[in-house]
Specification:
Oligomer: single chain
Strand order of the largest sheet: 1-2
Order of helices and strands: EHHHHHHHHHHHHHHHHHHHE
Distance between the termini: 22 Å
Number of helices: 19
Radius of gyration: 23 Å
Number of strands: 2
Length: about 500
């Protein structure tokens, strides 16, 4: 077991108070914006890709499924990798992978090459996101993390909303390849900027590599993400692929958890759940992510299939809420530092409950403006919850568990996303079928629209139930403080290898 080498190679102390945080945060934000923007950029171009490559809808969907699957499989291992590789090595390596995947995708002559490029992109994204959050925890003391996480939230909330609108505009006037051409210079700039300004701020302990745990983690999280994603795509929970994916994933995940609990050097340290606020926030985030998908998935479907808007117009309708969410993220971060989580999280979830309750009454004659206004309420509530809640949970962890905490939250967010998509598509489809079963004229186009509206009512009702559950959980949230040993170490106690990376 290699814990860091000989005496001559031991980590050296440096004073983090002398670190220039601004350029480091800027490097992280640029990389995150490029990666997250790309994650939602391609979906609207699917019809064009199907026509160009001659593939079916179920085949082209792999561009989204594979991306989510790779990120879900890779993130759990990032806690281990951050103890083997420096901050610069991890982040710059991730962005180089992302850049390579973007170039491959942009010149793809056949669908298989495009899919391979997306997988390489996903490898970069999966490596980068936990590193970004871990660096914020290391370079900022707990009382200043809210503002820093708010800036990260600005990117994480705004980029996914800009993506579909920008994509619709590009594919309407240019070819789908421009979705990648335009990202290439942004990714290259991120690599150069990080090379110049990003510093190493982590401790390298180089623990033993547990190959079996990595394999169990990959099959476990990968099986669950793929199983739920397949259920959403295939429209059936009894499909053999769905069933066996979930069974294999569930068994592997159970074995993975057992192995982490008995291991002296787990790759994902579950001792993070000994800290009550981290555990509470993890449950809250799972419920929140699933509730969020009730709008992220359902609203575009409603606007395109019932209101008959184009994909570009549907994306444009969701942009005001996304922009306001992005503006609110850094504001909520500053308020979090000053007042703590309760005054933000509880009202934020209450606003989400109000929005979902209003969406439960959605009808085919609703105007686009009405949807925009309710969506804005939803996004304001979301901005008050996401980063403050995550920061509260992570603040309670000791320094040596930061990488594990961020890996756990990022992994479970991917799983919750896959579950959310499958759950709400299934509920909507089931509600539509029940309506058509009692319809006097099932062939009528108007009845088909009404069946979808009925399905949406059911889906939003379940989303509201989840939001109410999140509201009840939020009543127990409290401001947290760093453990005593870490408080004593602030701000001057990061052990890093200044010459590595």
């Amino acid at each position: 077991m290699d814990l860091g080498g000989s005496i001559e190679n031991k980590p050296a102390n440096i004073d983090l108070s002398q670190i220039k945080r601004g350029p480091i945060v800027a490097a992280l934000i640029i990389g995150a914006f490029v990666a997250i923007l790309n994650e939602t950029l391609l979906n609207i171009a699917f019809p064009h890709l199907m026509a160009d490559f001659g593939v079916s809808e179920s085949t082209v969907q792999w561009l989204a499924t594979a991306y989510m699957l790779v990120v879900g499989v890779l993130v759990p291992a990032t806690a281990l990798m951050q103890q083997w590789f420096t901050t610069r090595q991890m982040f710059i390596g991730a962005m180089v992978l992302f850049l390579a995947g973007t170039i491959i995708s942009s010149v793809a002559p056949v669908f298989g090459v495009l899919l391979a490029g997306r997988v390489v992109q996903a490898l970069g994204t999966g490596l980068m996101m936990p590193v970004m959050m871990n660096v914020i925890l290391l370079i900022f003391p707990p009382e200043k993390r809210g503002g820093a996480m708010g800036m990260i939230g600005l990117v994480m909330m705004t980029a996914p909303v800009i993506g579909p609108t920008l994509s619709g505009l590009i594919v309407e006037h240019l070819t789908w390849r421009w979705l990648f051409y335009l990202v290439i210079p942004l990714a290259a700039f991120s690599v150069v900027f990080a090379w110049i300004f990003l510093k190493n701020v982590s401790t390298l302990t180089k623990p033993r590599v547990d190959v079996l745990s990595i394999a169990l983690s990959s099959v476990g999280f990968g099986g669950i993400v793929y199983g739920f994603s397949s259920a959403g795509e295939r429209g059936s929970w009894s499909d053999p692929v769905v069933v066996w994916s979930l069974v294999a994933g569930g068994l592997s995940l159970a074995l993975f958890v057992w192995r982490q609990l008995i291991s002296r050097e787990p790759i994902m340290d579950l001792r993070t759940f000994k800290y009550p606020m981290f555990s509470l926030v993890t449950i809250l985030m799972l419920v929140m992510m699933m509730s969020l998908f009730s709008t992220m998935i359902m609203l575009p479907l409603f606007m395109q299939q019932v209101l008959l808007l184009s994909a570009f117009s549907a994306g444009l309708a969701l942009m005001p809420g996304g922009i306001i969410n992005g503006i609110m993220a850094p504001i909520s971060g500053v308020l979090f530092d000053k007042f703590g989580p309760r005054v933000l999280v509880i009202p934020g979830i209450a606003l989400m409950c109000v929005a979902l309750w209003l969406f439960m009454g959605i009808q085919a004659d609703w105007t686009q403006g009405r949807i925009v206004m309710i969506h804005i309420i939803m996004m304001i509530g979301m901005s008050l919850v996401m980063m403050p809640a995550q920061t509260t949970g992570l603040n309670q962890l000791p320094r040596h568990l930061y990488a594990h905490g961020t890996a756990i939250l990022n992994t479970l967010s991917q799983v919750a996303g896959a579950i959310g998509v499958a759950l709400f598509i299934s509920i909507m489809s089931s509600g539509a079928k029940d309506y058509m079963a009692t319809s006097a004229d099932p062939t009528s186009p108007d009845e088909m629209l009404q069946s979808m509206v009925a399905g949406l009512h059911d889906a939003f009702f379940v989303g509201l139930c989840l939001a109410v559950l999140a509201l009840l959980i939020s009543l127990f949230i409290r401001r947290t403080h760093a453990p005593k040993e870490d408080q004593a170490a602030q701000p001057a106690a990061a052990q890093i290898r200044p010459n590595e990376g």
